[in-house]
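Sorry, explain these tokens?

___
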Amino acid sequence: MSQDDPKDLEVREVMVRSGRAELGGSLGLPPGARGLVIFAHGSGSSRFSPRNRAVARGLREAGLGTLLFDLLGADEEAMDAGTGELRFDIPFLARRLIAVTRWAQAQPELSGLGLGYFGSSTGAAAALLAAALHPESVRSVVSRGGRPDLAGPALARVRAPTLLLVGSLDVDVLELNQDAFDELSSAKSLIVIPGATHLFEEPGTLEEVARRAADWFTRHLEAPRLEARE
């Protein structure tokens, strides 16, 4: 992220404790924020994911706050580089996401904002599991090239309106998303981005993700909370 980019001037670094782990985070809060979107990155990534940062920038331009954070602490990251176990431990990652959510709810400047999750790859499964476990805290979920299928039986318990974004050329992941979509019982939408592969590296595709996500979050984070499933 460029420090001179005016789109990023509202971003500051924060630290969230989860047990013994210290999780670095990047909090961006535009004036009069209409909600807060917490990002859950995919396996092997971090809060510095250039694609997630690009999406976060687009969300802030739409008036939404963003919080990107590392799912693993420094020691855990070093250990996981050799074992690869934690990055695919969806319940563990969901607990981390819940810990960060509680931290955000405890911050005076954030406590009044509706919360949503943006998950990519395995982070999407963690976001959906966390949303199922704490429906009172999460108003909306968006998945980018995610693996929602890894949330398993929790999909049927998700109450938050959920948007699945998948590239048309990401054939295997698209099929997995279609199966997961059928399991969701909340308000939901599956949008296929034409010409996009898994990482949305093709021109204009990531911008389309940011626009779609901003529309979804704006609609659902500001809407009155629904007590029953839609």
